[in-house]
Amino acid sequence: MGSPGLITLDDSRDFVGKTLTASFGYLSGQPQNFAGIVTKVELTQSNGYHGILIVSGFSPTILIDRGPDLGSYLNKTLNDIVQLATKDTPVNELRITTNASRKKPVDYVIQYRERDFEFLNRLSAEYHEWLFYDGENLNFGKPNEQREVSLFYGRDIESLQYAMEVAPIKNKRFAYNPRHDEMLQSESTGSADGRPDLVHDQELDDEIENLNS
């Protein structure tokens, strides 16, 4: 990169677009790898001759976070839809693993002015599927192996924040069916299912107190 203390962007521009892998974890266990793509190289310098080179980037999922796209899928499974929507993604840059719980084909799905990542994110939300990048692969669906990891407050977790928030639960919705010239409407019950939030909040607070004691 040049003489000691001399850093220029001209010598570092080739970093952009390259894959950068970081490994972290405990010495006693298997390290966790994270592979990302360098998208920005910048030089920061103040009050002196020496500068600092800052390299930043994103996970390879940015390759499917490009501009809005259009697509339609008829009688395809979720696994097929994911593969078709990302077929132009270089396999050597981003490996995509599909293991959706739903095996039944979906009647009809349309991607309208959505980036590919937004489309996959919407599919995962609508059909209750997992979507996550594990550092090496983009996974759609649950992994075959799920390990339970114990985390300890004060050692593995440095900070913890939880809250309660008021949200509107009573609403009305309207729609018009032009084929039959009728107005459609629905109204929420105005009550939340499950236990009251205050009780749940108190139980969660007790659990945290037990962790601290």
UniProtKB/TrEMBL annotation:
Gene3D superfamilies: 2.30.110.50, Baseplate protein-like domains. It holds the Pfam family Phage_GPD. Residues 183-213 are annotated as: Disordered. It comes from the Bacteria. Residues 203-213 have a biased composition (Acidic residues). This is Phage late control gene D protein (GPD). It comes from Pedobacter westerhofensis. The lineage of its organism: Bacteria, Pseudomonadati, Bacteroidota, Sphingobacteriia, Sphingobacteriales.
